[in-house]
3-oxoacyl-[acyl-carrier-protein] synthase 2 (Pseudodesulfovibrio profundus), 412 residues
Amino acid sequence: MNRVVVTSVAAITPIGNDVETSWENLLAGKSGISKITRFDASEHATKIAGEVKDFDPTIYIPKKEARRMEIFTQYAVGCTKMLFEKAGWTIPEEESHRAGTVIGVGLGGLQAIEDTHQKMLDKGPGRISPFFIPILIANMAAGQVSIEAGAQGPNICTTTACASGTHAIGAAYTDIVMGRADVMICGGAESTITKLGIAGFNAMRALSTRNDEPELASRPFDMDRSGFIMGEGAGLLLLESLEHAKARGANILAEVVGSGASGDAHHMTAPPEDGTGMALAMQAAIREAKVDPSEIDHINAHGTSTKLNDMCETRAIKKVFGDHAYNINICANKSQVGHLLGAAGGVEAVFAVKTIAEGVIPGTINRETPDPDCDLDVCADGPREKQVKYALSNSFGFGGTNGCLLFKRFDG
């Protein structure tokens, strides 16, 4: 069994178009939530979102090629460029068959579907672009990343709703553990801030409508939380076997020591109120790492800012950790970047790795009125300087799908 380490991270988020800017703004408590600019949202109940600002795909992708990619794929390819630039390394041709890609995407090219449907109504089916299907399919992010990186190993897309990015990293980690690959590019990408995307989640009453105060709208674990805020972006990790990373003299940021997955077997969109399924995923990751739950000192929570999720996640954490739950420093990045759906697990895994590497736990903003049902330490007073040894990253999605990753400070 191979040990697996993280040797580079990259992110494009509503608070920064690279990982350094995103991390700096995360620690500064800045919110990336603002009025929607992608379309006229005046008729929508929710008029705010976590948009990526001033992203120029041609920095990373030739203009002609960029036009043949949906935004989620552009984010994934942009992150891949940054991932290898930060690693100071490219995949040698002779190793290409031992390097793979797993990218989680929840919905795929929703904007392409909307635009093309309207074009068909206006001009007829004969005017549909031959690139329509290749552009919109969710696995095109992994496909284009594979092309960009020259990775000829596993080329896979995980589509498990809001757990997509986390399951992608878990699958990539498993491939290296089992010896199927030496190097994996993994994480999540998503961009569904569209008329249909917002309308669909509004129809479910899942989104906050606190439109007059965008920066205060996403408030995980707060008594006055009223729904999540949609975000977009991408977060990728470069994983390598420890042997491969050492052989090339890589800078090791953290080690992946556990991956857990579970199903609620309960409801299409609602978790069971006791948090059983969530707890099973956390327990699986901890069990795989062969550590005691009392050793976990940080959790990057799913923390969506919905009434049911935050309560259930709190109960799940208590179920797993007992009294130790109150000693764990928890953060909810969605308070600042919104919910990136399929990309959420990727971006939050990047932040969990940064937490270990930098010795700082981000805060959770907007928790002004503590909810008695969510009484754990969510770092509501801001970032904490702390040398984190073990960090869990949680993701839970519609369909009752749950994922959890366990990262460890690398100590040789």
